[in-house]
Amino acid sequence: MQIDWTNIGSAIGFGLIGIFLALLGFKLFDWMLPRVHVQQELSEKHNVAVAIVCAAVILGVCHVVARIVGAPVIPF
């Protein structure tokens, strides 16, 4: 059994790109809501509603990123 290193390398590369884009999307969400201090609401006040909204945003962003990263390449 031979290991195909190009597929492993591209899976790792696209995985890292996906993680970076997911973090960027969450930071963009955090930047768009300047009146809500997410870290303070979660750590000090234990606000469950903010945690649920953050989880929904993270899942939504990750779904979009997965569709973008996993899309087939269309040659021009």
Describe the structure in your own words.
It is a single chain. The protein is mostly helical and 76 residues long. The N and C termini lie far apart (36 Å). Helix content is 74%, strand content 0%. The protein has one domain (5-69). The mean pLDDT is 87. The chain is built from 3 helices and no strands. The chain is elongated.
List keywords for this structure.
76 residues, mainly alpha, 3 helices, 74% helix
List the helices and strands and how they pair.
Blueprint: H1 5-32, H2 38-43, H3 48-69
Q: What sort of overall outline do the alpha carbons produce when their principal axes are compared? A: elongated
Number of helices: 3
Average pLDDT, all residues: 87
Oligomer: single chain
Helix vs. strand class: mainly alpha
How helical, in percent, are the residues? Answer: over 70%
* Main sheet specs: none
Spans of 5+ residues with little confidence (pLDDT < 50)?
A: none
- Number of E-state strands: 0
Fraction in beta strands:
under 5%
Number of domains: 1
User: Between the first and last Cα atoms, what is the distance in angstroms?
Assistant: 36 Å
